[in-house]
């Protein structure tokens, strides 16, 4: 199986693992940058997978504090980088071409999401997709950007006066500090037993307004199409351990999740064993037609989601329909346990 080192978040919501199975990661990033149109496809964010954290734990809306991102369209986009400095503070800078001048306020407008979003930058802070692809490839290989660029610090709220500008070669962040996790949107406190989540959208309580709890699960699974709706998660409502700093013993919350489409999806869960340790497992059938696949060297299948960037390798016995998955989800919601009669394949964090 491919070793997952980086993840990419598209349009501030859909996160997928990048795999070098079909092509180098730099080529995949170039493809994603070329796809930006300033409308439906407006942003991408690239971050490295922290050691000891399985990428499947990261696709539900959490990224590291350090990342490289772009916004705009393939012919006019920005590049900014965020990193953690030696004092543990997150710092963010916009890249600019060498030789550019920072006079007055930024005077070049860039729009995205069909005009619903936008930003003002200096003219030399505008890039084309091919230029950006070189920067992203260097970031994948080294964890930093190439020499020869100007960096303008971005601060909120905005600070009056001349911007702080440095050359990219003047900064060399500590690699180990870049793996701290930055949580995304946190749900409001609730007495509900479970939270449900589609893709990396905000979680909602299973007993909140709208459909009945079991109907919410059934609807969420039936609507999976492997593209715009690629994932559904049922998470237990329990306190989570602090997520920073990252360490090899990090474990996510307990949950049951589905990836794929209603006609072919895979199930995985984070469970707690008798010793209190958590493990991420893929769920499979014990039917004799499939069980031998796990032990006789049968090649896994490649199941794509999130419209293609997302990929997970599974065995034939680990594919379910939404109706089959619903019965497993219903049992889990009622008992906090998976039903008997399934094979659980532990997923190593290095995948």
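-> sequence recovered:
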């Amino acid at each position: 199986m491919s070793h997952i080192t980086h993840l990419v978040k598209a349009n501030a919501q859909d996160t997928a693992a990048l795999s070098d199975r079909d092509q180098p990661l730099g080529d995949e990033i170039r493809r994603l940058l070329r796809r930006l149109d300033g409308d439906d496809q407006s942003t991408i964010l690239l971050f490295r997978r922290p050691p000891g954290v399985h990428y499947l734990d990261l696709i539900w809306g959490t990224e590291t504090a350090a990342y490289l991102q772009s916004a705009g369209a393939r012919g006019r986009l920005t590049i900014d980088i965020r990193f953690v400095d030696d004092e543990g503070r997150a710092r963010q800078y916009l890249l600019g071409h060498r030789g550019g001048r920072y006079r007055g306020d930024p005077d070049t407008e860039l729009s995205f999401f069909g005009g619903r979003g936008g930003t003002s930058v200096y003219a030399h802070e505008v890039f084309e997709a091919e230029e950006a692809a070189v920067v992203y490839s260097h970031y994948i290989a080294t964890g930093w950007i190439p020499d020869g660029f100007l960096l303008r610090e971005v601060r909120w709220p905005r600070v009056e006066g001349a911007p702080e500008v440095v050359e990219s070669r003047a900064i060399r962040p500590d690699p180990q500090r870049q793996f701290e996790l930055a949580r995304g949107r946190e749900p409001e406190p609730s007495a509900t037993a479970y939270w449900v989540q589609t893709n990396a959208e905000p979680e909602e309580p299973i007993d909140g307004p709208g459909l009945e709890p079991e109907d919410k699960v059934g609807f969420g699974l039936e609507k999976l199409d492997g593209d715009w709706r690629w994932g559904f998660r049922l998470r237990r409502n329990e306190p989570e351990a602090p997520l920073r700093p990252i360490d090899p013993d990090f474990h996510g919350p307990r949950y049951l999740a589905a990836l794929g489409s209603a006609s072919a999806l895979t199930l995985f869960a984070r469970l707690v064993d008798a010793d209190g340790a958590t493990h991420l497992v893929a769920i499979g059938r014990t039917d004799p037609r499939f069980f031998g696949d796990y032990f006789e060297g049968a090649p896994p299948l490649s199941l794509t989601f999130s419209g293609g960037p997302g990929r997970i390798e599974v065995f034939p016995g680990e594919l379910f329909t939404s109706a089959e998955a619903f019965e497993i989800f219903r049992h889990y919601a009622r008992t906090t346990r998976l039903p008997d009669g399934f094979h659980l394949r532990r997923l190593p964090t290095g995948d």
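Residues 8 and 46 are 4 Å apart (CA to CA).
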